[in-house]
Amino acid sequence: MDYLAGIDLGSTSLKVIIYDLEGNAVSGANRPTERFNPYPEHPDWAIWKPEQIWGGVCESLKEAIGQIDEPADIKGVAVTGMGMDGVPIGADGNWLYPFISWHCPRTEPQYRWWMEHIGPEKQFEVGGNQIWVFNTALRLLWMKENEPEILAKTDKWLLIEDFINFMLSGKYGTDHSMASTTLLFDQRKRVWSDELIEISGIDRSLLCDPQPSGTPLGKVHAKAAEATGLAEGTTVVLGGHDYCCGTLPVGAFQPGVVLDVTGTWEIVVTALSEPVLTPEVREMGIPVHSHVASPDMWSIMAAAVAADMLEWFRREYAFEEKQNAEKNSGDEWDQLMKLAQASPPGANGVMFLPHMSGSHCPVVDHQSMGAFVGLRNIVTRGDMLRAVIEGLDYQFVQIVRGLEKSLGTKPQKFVAIGGATKNQFWMQNKADMIGKSIETPEIEEPTPLGAAILAGIGVGLYENVQDAYEKVYKPGKVYQPNLELTKKYHKWFKTFEAIYPSLKDLNARLHGQPT
Q1: Residue 211 to residue 157: CA distance in whole angstroms
Q2: Second label for 447, Cα 20 to 30 Å away, from 30, 109, 199, 221?
Q3: Are 16 and 71 in contact (CB under 8 A)?
């Protein structure tokens, strides 16, 4: 039997899943992604150790492969995961410095330099990037200024996925979606930007040549085979950025299909047939990157903090439910959702502004803060919890409407994945609010499956992403909207949209106060 392996490099775990060609997981394993803060003089500086990343992947591969009969049945392997983080590799193939984690603030001075000398407008016009303090190019500038001797010995700067590919095959390479995260990629030409490289002074030779996702990169060599359990000669295929890979098994690479990934963050993803690099899109805080599905496709990713606020409510206000769950071996979330459902739509007039970690999209304001409004002495915990869920769903509607306005497109279909899909009340409320059906496919691990699909395309087991999607897709529950509720939420939405501008100046003053 033919299998494909997807390796997913996340911020919390290093995951390997082996799939059959119908997208069924036949085995899997994972190890923690360990973040280190090893600098006493800079306690907030964070790194990933290359030996821990590679070692965790090797252990996960060995364990997953040990659950199948024949390693040679794995015909291809591809890597997906986080963006931006990279490592310098010397000419001898050894790493010279740890990965600077995206959690690390050390590149704040380089961020300010980039904003001043290149600026958000130019950056977005060329690369489709929002400028974030952890972007790859800023790490290269930091190395140039702080570790010039190490950078002088560097043969290639490898993004974290490219590092694993190199360790497996001994070949350098990157794909268009990962190159998109660096601040140095030209989205229209799909090559490194001569203009951005010249302004920044970054050495072009440090960068791998970008190629489309699904391109075979090399073969697993003998040393890597011994370390991982993969058969020597297994094809290593270029994967891509995690949120893009997650669109493949659920069909969200098709025009008009919107993928909603909801966990700690809510990420709304849709595909574009051309790079829309307009000021309207930039002002929403949305990056436009190359898609993994096709060399002629781009993606947008709108992101906002979501379930983290429900976790806050549970932690601070669910003592009774936690005690009951421990006493009766139950689930405190089930009790909390019953509490929220007991509150009527509109939460008895309570509304919640979900900006407890600032506002990221569609309004970019890191000084904004969360707020409950409409509190009276008749308000219950259930009303407040329902208001949190409704606030998150109003935010989702804001994002979708912002995309419609800035991209000039109307979503035809919504599919949802992530931990929130297990919360039926939340999903139903989201459908009621947006006024469209939302399908939750029966695919628990779409991101590594997306990488495995790219591996299958690279070795010829799938004709293209559409062929793969038709083979692996597993439909799930569909939440149909209550259109009478949709009408009510449409009216209440206008009130919700007034909360942020009403509190903007007050939150800015509060943000500046000493604590």
Answers
A1: 16
A2: 221
A3: no
Which of the two residues, 325 and 81, has the higher pLDDT score? 81
What domains, with CATH codes, occur in the chain? 3-245 (3.30.420.40), 307-401+483-512 (3.30.420.40)
Q: In 3-state terms, what secondary structure has residue 54?
A: helix
Start-end of H helices in 344-445: 381-407, 424-434
> How much is the CA Rg of the chain, to the nearest whole Å?
23
Beta partners for residue 235, in sequence order: 76, 219
User: Is residue 393 within 8 Å of residue 430, measured between CB atoms?
Assistant: yes
- Please tell me the distance from the alpha carbon of residue 186 to that of residue 177, in angstroms, as a whole number: 11
User: In 70-169, which ranges are continuous DSSP H helix?
Assistant: 108-117, 119-127, 136-146, 148-152, 160-169
Contact criterion met (CB below 8 Å) for 238 and 175: yes
pTM for this entry: 0.91
Per-residue pLDDT of 410-426, as tens digits, reads: 898 999 998 889 899 99
Label residue 311 by pLDDT band (50, 70, 90). very high
Q: Which residues does 160 contact at the CB level (< 8 Å), separation at least 6?
A: 9, 48, 53, 81, 82, 85, 86, 87, 99
Measure the CA dihedral 415/418/423/428, to 10°: -20
Output the pLDDT for position 410: 85
